[in-house]
Write a structure and sequence with these properties.
The complex is a heterodimer of chains A (about 230) and B (about 220). Chain A has about 230 residues and is an all-alpha fold. Chain A is built from 10 helices and 2 strands; from the N terminus they run αααααααβαβαα. Chain A has helices at about 1-15, 25-30, 35-60, 70-90, 90-100, 110-115, 125-155, 160-165, 190-220, 220-230; strands at about 155, 175. In chain A, helix 3 (about 35-60) runs antiparallel to helix 7 (about 125-155). The radius of gyration of chain A is 20 Å and the shape is globular. Helix content of chain B is about 35%, strand content about 20%. In chain B, strands 1-2-3-4-5 form a 5-stranded antiparallel beta sheet, with helices on both faces. The chains are: A mainly alpha (about 230), B alpha+beta (about 220).
Chain lengths: ~230, ~220
């Protein structure tokens, strides 16, 4: 159980696809003009990542190192195509919102990256947890960046969320400043790079602070303990 | 059985195994794709037809026709372009037609506009179906962003007269947007081109070639 928890926190934070591995930035820049788009892309990617990790972990004993890359590419591309056709045929309302993003998952190097770095060496359950955690970590990053760009660019948050999640989620749609003229740059590609840069810097700063606290605790545990008690 | 021996772990390093593995995976995934395509094809076609119907309903009001608009089509050659026209009939007579017009948008990107025209050449509705205009500036041509596009309804080539078919900056009657003139100018030009197409091909569009010829006899 503890092993899975470790995999999970790695995917969500410690080894986050976007903020640590710096992968999958191409679809990220393209879709994160709103938080809702980010959520949609994140969920679709999570589904494919989960399925591809499980499939590849399941066949890992048959796949030899020499031909693994083309085999992985074939499996992932097929999964994405299947998802695309199934959603188009049977969940068409969702397809109108997500349709643009699903083919983009093929170019998401994070999916191949996880197949190569994790699923090809681990049992199916662990690979499933890893796929889910990495996908959710990616979703989190997309919502964060999409949310920042949306707030700065058009002063709304989760606009059109009810199109993606159904009418019961209409409460998510907020307009922060009515009649806001919009900071257009944030909706254009440069805005994506700017927001990503600031968020990366923020994560590094948090991690450095945590590291410093850890070394301080290791050197002199008592004052820190007193501080926590006081809080 | 000899064939299956290749799957034993000690044979994994042979060239045969690699070939069979890669070929097998390719064959298997292609088969799955083929089956999935067969399973989803009719559903996807139906969904696309519904989407088309929903779009056409926006530019040709429901109730003004009694035929299956989506299936009553005619292709008209206009210069180098082939235009697919949907015809709305009531009691057999064409009441309105709908077709796509293309316009180069900002930076010469593709922009597709669909218009509905009644038999007198008056616009029933106009919608931009796809475009690559700048979000926040040029995208006010979408109905979800602004109702600018509704300003075309009821217009024709005589209302306003052709020389007034332009944005206000060019001496026309249509509003431009703050910071974006090229986009509305392109839409106005496209819609005007669509109306000129109607005038040029009126008889063919309204399926009246026979009746007109008959009346002359």
């Amino acid at each position: 159980m503890n092993q899975y928890r470790g995999i999970f926190t790695e995917g969500l934070w410690g080894n986050n696809v976007v903020f640590t591995q710096m992968l999958a930035l191409c679809p990220l820049m393209a879709v994160t003009t709103t938080a809702t788009n980010g959520l949609g892309m994140g969920l679709a990617t999570t589904g494919v990542l989960l399925a591809s990790n499980m499939l590849i972990a399941g066949c890992r004993n048959f796949i030899t190192p020499d031909v693994r890359i083309p085999v992985f590419v074939l499996l992932i591309a097929s999964l994405v195509t299947l998802a695309d056709m199934a959603i188009n045929a049977w969940l068409h309302e969702l397809y109108k919102v997500l349709g643009l993003f699903i083919p983009l998952i093929v170019v998401n190097c994070a999916v191949l990256g996880r197949a190569e770095a994790f699923a090809s060496k681990q049992p199916v359950q662990a690979a499933a947890v890893d796929g889910l955690a990495m996908g959710l970590g990616y979703t989190l990053a997309l919502i964060l960046i999409g949310g920042c760009r949306e707030i700065l660019g058009s002063a709304t948050l989760f606009a059109h969320a009810s199109l993606l999640l159904g009418d019961s989620f209409a409460f998510l749609e907020t307009t922060l400043i009515p009649q806001y003229k919009g900071f257009l740059l944030m909706l254009l590609p440069p805005g994506g790079f700017l927001v990503l840069g600031f968020l990366l810097a923020g994560k590094r700063a948090l991690e450095r602070r945590a590291q410093q606290r850890k070394t301080r605790l290791a050197m002199n545990p008592n004052p820190a303990a007193g501080q926590t008690a006081a809080l | 059985m000899n064939l299956l021996a290749i799957f034993k772990p000690e044979h994994r390093q042979t060239l045969h195994y690699q070939v069979v593995l890669l070929g097998g995976v390719a064959l298997l995934t292609s088969a799955v794709m083929g089956i999935a395509d067969r399973l989803t094809r009719t559903d996807i076609a139906n969904r696309q037809l519904e989407d088309l119907q929903a779009t056409l309903q926006q530019v040709v009001p429901t109730g003004s026709y009694d035929n299956d608009l989506v299936r009553d089509t005619v292709t008209i050659q206009d210069g180098e372009r082939r235009v697919l026209v949907y015809r709305a009939r009531k009691a057999g007579q064409v009441q309105a037609v709908s077709y796509q017009v293309n316009a180069p948008g900002y930076g010469n990107t593709a922009m597709v506009v669909i218009i509905g025209v009644d038999r007198n050449g008056t616009l029933l509705g106009t919608r931009v179906i796809s475009h690559n205009e700048t979000p926040g500036l040029g995208d006010k041509i979408e109905l979800s962003k602004s109702d600018w596009i509704l300003g075309f309804t009821g217009r024709s080539l005589t209302n306003p007269p052709p020389e007034k078919w332009g944005v206000k900056k060019d001496g026309g009657v249509f509003d431009q947007f703050t910071g974006a003139t090229i986009t509305p100018r392109a839409v106005v030009k496209a819609v005007k081109g669509g109306l000129e197409f109607f005038t040029a091909h009126r008889a063919a569009l309204l399926d009246e070639a026979g009746t007109v010829a008959g009346a002359k006899e």
